[in-house]
Write a structure and sequence with these properties.
The complex is a heterodimer of chains A (732) and B (153). Chain A has 732 residues and is α+β, with helices and mostly antiparallel strands. Helices cover 29% and strands 24% of the residues of chain A. Chain A contains 19 helices and 30 strands. In chain A, the strands form 9 sheets. Chain A has a 7-stranded mixed beta sheet with strand order 11-12-9-19-16-17-18, with helices on both faces. In chain A, strands 14-24-21-20-15 form a 5-stranded mixed beta sheet, with helices on both faces. In chain A, α2 packs parallel to α4 and α4 packs across α5. Chain B folds into 2 domains: 74 residues, Ubiquitin-like (UB roll) (Roll); 77 residues, DNA polymerase, domain 1 (Orthogonal Bundle), CATH 1.10.150. In chain B, 41% of the residues lie in helices and 14% in strands. Chain B has a 5-stranded mixed beta sheet with strand order 2-1-5-3-4, sandwiched between helices. The chains are: A alpha+beta (732), B alpha+beta (153). The interface between A and B is large, with 66 and 58 residues.
Chain lengths: 732, 153
C-alpha cells in the first residue's frame, strides 16, 4: 500500500500554503494556493514531487488532479486520535475514492470553511471530530462523486443512473466503459454540485467499519514526521523563556551580565511578564536563561496555596448553585427518606503533552508565518492579528502534527508569547518551553468539589441532589457555553446521568480559584461528574446491600438500554463475580459521555502499605458506527492509561503562588511496568457515531476507585488516591 | 570543533563540549526525529544509540562521545532489528501522536539487540524509562514480542 500524507513541510509550505477562496459558478468554491517560501529555506526539508492541486476542487475538503490523485484537506488537528484517517475514510467512502492513494493535509485557518459544525469555530476538542463532521464530510464526498458520475455520463451520452463509481473510477454498467477520476476532473469542475447529494446506505459501506491502517503513522516510526517543534526555517534562532513563577507576577529587574558571556547567546528579551533568551540553539538559550538573575515582582498572588484553594471551594459549595436540571420533587424525596451524603474532590492537573509548548514565528513588516501544532488554527490567526496589527490575510498558520494535545493546545498563550518575543527579534525565531515551564505555566484542569445526596426506596434511588462546584472554563474560553450560571461542560454527564431517578436536582456553582488559570483537560466535565456519580453509586449499592453491577442494571435497563448492554458485556468479559484473592477487588463504572455508552471494570490489588497495583481493565463500548474500529480500541486503551495516571499520581499543588511540580520526576506519569492489561470490546451498532478520544480518561478513575473500595472497604473520595488512607495511617 | 559520527557520517560541529547531544542533533545537524521531552533523562523521548546501546541524548554531553557510533531514529531502520521493530509498530498500529515513538523504538531496538527474546520483565526494565502520554504501552509490549518473533523466524 502506498498511502501517504503530503508532508506538511517543506512541500506543503513551499508550494501551496495559503488557501485563497473565491466564489465559483454554481456556489462551489474554487481554491488556489500561493507560495510564500522557497523549499530551500527549510534546511530539514526533503524535497519531492509537487503535491496535486485541482483542477477539481468542488468544496473546501476535496482536490482531484488530472492524474487522479485525491487530496483531502483536514479541518481538524491530528494529535494522535486518528482523525486524519477517520475523516479521510468518511470522505473516501462517499466519494468512492481508492483509499490507498489519497493524501491528506492540514487545512489553513478558517472558521468559515473549516469551522467545527458543533462549535461554529475551528476547534478540535470535546471528542466530536467524527460526530460533528460526519454528515458534512459524507455530503462533500457524495456531492463530488455525483459530479464525477455526471461528467462521465455526459461524455458517454448516457443516463447517469446507469453509472456507478468505485476505486476512483466511474463505470457505465451496461457497456463496461470506465473513466478514471483524473480524466474527469476538468469536466466535473464545470458542473453544478447537486442540491441534495444522495448518501450511501450504511449497509453499502466499503471503508467505514474496517480497521484500516492509519495515514499518519508510517512517518512517525522513522523520524520523518514533523511536529511544530521540528520547524527549522532558514536563519531561525532558538529561544526559551521564563514567566513569573508566581501566577500573575511581573519582571522587576534582570541582571544579564553572566548570560551575555555564554557562547551562542544572541539576545535577551525582557517583557513585562517574561524573560526570553535567544541563541544559536536551544542549549545556548537554556544555559543563558539559567545564568540570568531575574527579580520578580510577585504581585498579589504570592500567598495562594492549595490548602486555601480547598478551604475556599468547600465553603463556596455550601451555597446553592444554579439549577441545571430538575425532575420530580428532589427536596421532598430527600426530606422523606434517609438521605446519604458524600462529597468528592478532584485536583488541579497539568496536561504535560510529550511535545512541550513551542511555536516558530517569522514576523515581517508585511506578514507573519506561524508554525505550530494547535487545536485552534483560526483562533491562533486571530490572536496573532490582534498582537501584530496585521490583517488576518497576512498571517499564515502552518498547522503541524501535534505531539499530544489533551486540551492544552486549545489555548494560544504559547503562541502569543512567541509572537511578543518575535516582535523584539530580527528574523525567524523558534520558542521552545522547557518542561518545567510547560508544567508550571499551564491552564490547569480545575479543582472540583461535588456534593451528592440521595435517598433509596425499594433498593433504587428515589431522591438525588448533585451540586458541582468549580471553575467555569467555558466562561473564559467560549462564553456562549456559560449562561444563567451554568457551565454546559461542567454539568455534562451529570444532567444527563444514565439512571432512572424519579426526583433529581443538579446544580452548578461557579467558583474560580484564586490566581490559577483553568482550561480544558482530556475528558473535561464528564471526568468530574462520572467520577463523583459512579463513586457515589457504589456507596449507595453497599448501603442498599446490592451487587454494584445489579444495582446499576436495575436502574439502567429502561432509560439507557445501550449502556445496560455494555455493562452486561463488560461484566461477562471481566469475570465479574468470580472469586479473587484477598486485597484484590473489581470495580465498575458506567458512563454516557460524548454520545458513547461505556462500561468499565478494573481489577486492582492494594497491599497493606497502601500501594496499588492495577492488574487489568476491561471496557465494553457502544459508540455507534465505528468508523475505524482499531483507532477506537486504541483511544480507549490510551485513554484508560491517561485516566489511570491521573487517578494514581496526578495532582498539581500550589504553594506561595507557585506550582510545586516541575517535571516528570515529581509530576509522575504511568510507565509501561505499571500498565495494566487492557481489553476493549466494541459493540456493533448502526447508530450515529459517538465521540471516543476522551472517554477512557473519564472511565478509569471511578472504576479504579470502586475496585479499591471492593478490595479494602475504604471509600476514597478524592483524587489522586491517597496511599496513607489505604495504609490506615490517615482517615478518608 | 567536535567530530561526531552520526548514522555513519562524520559531522564537524562547532558547539560547547557540555552541550547535550540532543540539541546538536536537532538544532545544529537538523536531525529532528530525536525529540525533546523533559531535559532530565526522565522520559526517554530523546533516546539514541551510542554503539548500539540506548542512551538519553538530552543528558549526554557531546564532548564525552568521541568516536563512538551515534545512531538516530532516521537510520535505525537500516539495521535488520530496527526494520523489524518499525514494521511491528505499524502492523500493530502502536502509534498515536507519535512524539515519544522515536525514543520508544530506539529503546526497543536496543533491547532486542541485547535480548532477542525478551520476557515481560525484560520489556519492563528496558522500556520503563520511556513515557508515552497517549498510553500506547499495551501495544508497545505486543509489538516488541511480535518483532522478537519475526527476529527468530
Amino acid at each position: 500500500m502506498t498511502v501517504h500524507i503530503t508532508p506538511k513541510l517543506p512541500k506543503a509550505l513551499s508550494r501551496r500554503t495559503v488557501l485563497q477562496t473565491g466564489a465559483a459558478a454554481g456556489g462551489g468554491l474554487l481554491l488556489g494556493f500561493q507560495s510564500p517560501f522557497a523549499a530551500a529555506s527549510i534546511p530539514n526539508a526533503t524535497d519531492g514531487a509537487p503535491a496535486p492541486v485541482g483542477p477539481f476542487a468542488p468544496d473546501a475538503f476535496i482536490r482531484i488532479d488530472r492524474a487522479g490523485h485525491v487530496t483531502f484537506i483536514m479541518p481538524q488537528a491530528e494529535m494522535g486520535q486518528g482523525v486524519y484517517t477517520a475523516h479521510a475514510m468518511i470522505i473516501a467512502e462517499e466519494l468512492d475514492a481508492a483509499f490507498e492513494t489519497v493524501s491528506v493535509e492540514a487545512s489553513p485557518p478558517s472558521d468559515a470553511l473549516y469551522g467545527n459544525p458543533v462549535f461554529g469555530i475551528q476547534a478540535t476538542g470535546n471528542s466530536n471530530s467524527v460526530r460533528a463532521f460526519w454528515t458534512k464530510l459524507r455530503q462533500a464526498g457524495a456531492s463530488a462523486r455525483a459530479m464525477l458520475v455526471q461528467a462521465a455520463a455526459a461524455q458517454w451520452k448516457v443516463d447517469p443512473a446507469g453509472c456507478t463509481a468505485s476505486n476512483s473510477e466511474v463505470l457505465h454498467t451496461a457497456s463496461g466503459r470506465k473513466l478514471a477520476y483524473g480524466a474527469l476532473a476538468d469536466a466535473a469542475a464545470k458542473l453544478t454540485p447537486p442540491a441534495k447529494p444522495v448518501l450511501k446506505n450504511p449497509k453499502d459501506f466499503k471503508l467505514i467499519g474496517k480497521p484500516l491502517k492509519r495515514l499518519d503513522t508510517p512517518d512517525k516510526v522513522n523520524g520523518k514526521a514533523l511536529y511544530g517543534i521540528d520547524m527549522l526555517p532558514a536563519g531561525v534562532k532558538f529561544a526559551t523563556l521564563a514567566a513569573s513563577p508566581v501566577f500573575g507576577g511581573k519582571v522587576a529587574h534582570v541582571d544579564d551580565s553572566a548570560a551575555k558571556t555564554i557562547p551562542g547567546v544572541r539576545q535577551i528579551v525582557v517583557l513585562d511578564d517574561l524573560v526570553a533568551v535567544v541563541g544559536d540553539h536551544m542549549w545556548a538559550a537554556k544555559t543563558g536563561l539559567s545564568a540570568l538573575a531575574i527579580t520578580w515582582d510577585e504581585g498579589a498572588n504570592a500567598h495562594v496555596d492549595s490548602a486555601q484553594v480547598w478551604k475556599d471551594i468547600k465553603a463556596a459549595s455550601e451555597h446553592e448553585g444554579a439549577i441545571a436540571k430538575a425532575v420530580g420533587d428532589a427536596k421532598k424525596a430527600l426530606q422523606e427518606g434517609d438521605p446519604f451524603e458524600a462529597h468528592y474532590e478532584l485536583p488541579f492537573l497539568s496536561h504535560a503533552p510529550m511535545e512541550p509548548i513551542n511555536c516558530t514565528v517569522s514576523l515581517r513588516a508585511d506578514g507573519c508565518d506561524i508554525w505550530v501544532g494547535t487545536q485552534v488554527a483560526a483562533r491562533t490567526q486571530a490572536a496573532v492579528a490582534k498582537l501584530t496589527g496585521l490583517p488576518l490575510a497576512k498571517i499564515t498558520v502552518h498547522n503541524q502534527l501535534l505531539g499530544g494535545g489533551f486540551g492544552r493546545r486549545l489555548d494560544v498563550d504559547g503562541i502569543e508569547k512567541s509572537v511578543r518575543i518575535a516582535q523584539k527579534v530580527d528574523g525567524p525565531i523558534k520558542v521552545v518551553w522547557t518542561r518545567e515551564e510547560d508544567i508550571q505555566h499551564d491552564f490547569y484542569r480545575p479543582v472540583y468539589y461535588d456534593r451528592i445526596t440521595a435517598t433509596l426506596k425499594d433498593g433504587r434511588i428515589d431522591g438525588w441532589k448533585h451540586r458541582i462546584t468549580g471553575s467555569s472554563v467555558m466562561a473564559r474560553w467560549f462564553p456562549l457555553g456559560f449562561s444563567h450560571g451554568i457551565d454546559g461542560d461542567g454539568v455534562d454527564s451529570a444532567v444527563d446521568e444514565p439512571y432512572e431517578i424519579p426526583n433529581m436536582r443538579v446544580e452548578f456553582l461557579r467558583h474560580e480559584p484564586p490566581a490559577v488559570p483553568t482550561g480544558f483537560w482530556r475528558g473535561v466535565g464528564p471526568n468530574n461528574n462520572v467520577f463523583a456519580i459512579e463513586s457515589f453509586i457504589d456507596e449507595l449499592a453497599k448501603k442498599a446491600g446490592k451487587d454494584p453491577v445489579d444495582f446499576r442494571l436495575a436502574m439502567l435497563a429502561k432509560k439507557t438500554p445501550r449502556l445496560a448492554s455494555a455493562l452486561k458485556l463488560a461484566a461477562r468479559k471481566a469475570g465479574w463475580g468470580n472469586p479473587l484473592s484477598p486485597r484484590r477487588g473489581r470495580g465498575v463504572a458506567v458512563q454516557v459521555s460524548f454520545a458513547s455508552f461505556i462500561a468499565t471494570i478494573a481489577e486492582v490489588e492494594v497491599d497493606h502499605d497502601g500501594n496499588i497495583r492495577v492488574h487489568r481493565i476491561t471496557s465494553a463500548v457502544d459508540t455507534g458506527i465505528a468508523v475505524n474500529p482499531d483507532s477506537i480500541v486504541a483511544q480507549l486503551q490510551g485513554g484508560l492509561i491517561f485516566g489511570t495516571t491521573a487517578a494514581l499520581y496526578g495532582e498539581i499543588i500550589i504553594d506561595k503562588g507557585r506550582v510545586q511540580q516541575s517535571n516528570f520526576n515529581n509530576y509522575r506519569m504511568l510507565r509501561i511496568d505499571e500498565a495494566p492489561e487492557i481489553n476493549v470490546h466494541l459493540i456493533k451498532s448502526g447508530e450515529a457515531p459517538g465521540g471516543i478520544g476522551e472517554t477512557g480518561t473519564t472511565a478509569a478513575p471511578p472504576a479504579l476507585r470502586n475496585a479499591i473500595f471492593a478490595a479494602t472497604g475504604i471509600p476514597l473520595r478524592r483524587l489522586p488516591f491517597d496511599r496513607e488512607v489505604l495504609a490506615g495511617r490517615k482517615r478518608v | 570543533m567536535t567530530s561526531l559520527r552520526i548514522n555513519g557520517q562524520i559531522h564537524e560541529v562547532d558547539v560547547p563540549g557540555d552541550m547535550p547531544l540532543l540539541w546538536v542533533l536537532r538544532d545544529v545537524v537538523g536531525l529532528t526525529g530525536t525529540k525533546f521531552g523533559c531535559g532530565i533523562a526522565q522520559c526517554g523521548a530523546c533516546t539514541v544509540h551510542i554503539d548500539g546501546k540506548a542512551v538519553r541524548s538530552c543528558f549526554l554531553p557531546v564532548g564525552e562521545i568521541g568516536n563512538r557510533a551515534i545512531t538516530t531514529i532516521e537510520a535505525v531502520g537500516e539495521t535488520p532489528t530496527g526494520a523489524k521493530v518499525q514494521k511491528a509498530w505499524l502492523d500493530l498500529e502502536v502509534v498515536q501522536c507519535g512524539y515519544c515513538q522515536s525514543g520508544q523504538i530506539m529503546s526497543a531496538v536496543a533491547l532486542l539487540a541485547a535480548t532477542p527474546n525478551p520476557d515481560d520483565s525484560d520489556i519492563d526494565a528496558a522500556m520503563a524509562g520511556n513515557i508515552c502520554r497517549c498510553g500506547t504501552y499495551v501495544r508497545i509490549r505486543a509489538a516488541i514480542k511480535k518483532a522478537a518473533g519475526a527476529q527468530q523466524a
